[in-house]
Amino acid sequence: MIIQVFYLGKNVDGIQMQLVSLSGYNVRYRAYVGGRWLPWITGNSDYAGIFGQPIEAIQAEIVSGNSGGGDMSQSKILKYNSSLSPEQQKLGHWCGPAALNAVDCFYYNLSGKNTDKTQNDMAILLATTTQTSFGSCWQIALNGNIPGNLYSLYRAENYTSSAWISKVKERIMRNIDMGYPVIADTLQNASRGFLTENYNQGRDIYHYITVIGYMIKSDGSCYFRYMDSYSKNHGVYTVPLYTLANITYGNDLGIVCY
């Protein structure tokens, strides 16, 4: 019985670590090489050596088993092309347009670029000037580019801190299960916390990210995978629920999701 499916990109070392950490599970996986998916296999194979070709993507699937410790008991990560996403923001104040550009993971296609939308296009949609406001332009832009017309602003100021933690977890997991990314507006500093230490710069930093996945361990702890466009933190990372909830909590902060 298939109990879990998650998708990972091009970083083979990271993929091997994820698979090895799933002790107690039977896992099968396959690589996308040379324009096609290879057959499903089991065991810890070195995908980097298959046919001597670079790997474009890897799909892994837990088919049976039981975890005896702190391994992932539930997870889902939206597919994306790691050679194209996320884009680094083109201007220092364009984290909003770059985060919106990263929703191209919804249109993921191994045969080409995920979307024809550029950061310039997104900056116009978001009315970005020296910053991108957390306002109605986000709903208009997302609903104009992703089917359903269901994206809304969830303003953290409308919730207590504990209720916000629950709301962030519930909304992100629901969106990812449906296949839709989530935009998060963050304020990071020493008292609130940081996505990573790359943001520990002795000042307040406002920054948008795109959440593309979640991971729940058997001990109940929750983590999110996100795309980051910031030059000093460019890539795909993991952040704990409580950190993300804390840095998105406050006036004019929140998430954009279904």
Automatic annotation (TrEMBL):
Name this polypeptide is given: Peptidase C39-like domain-containing protein
Superkingdom of this protein's organism: Bacteria
Organism: Clostridium botulinum CFSAN001627
Ranges of residues in domain Peptidase C39-like: 86-230
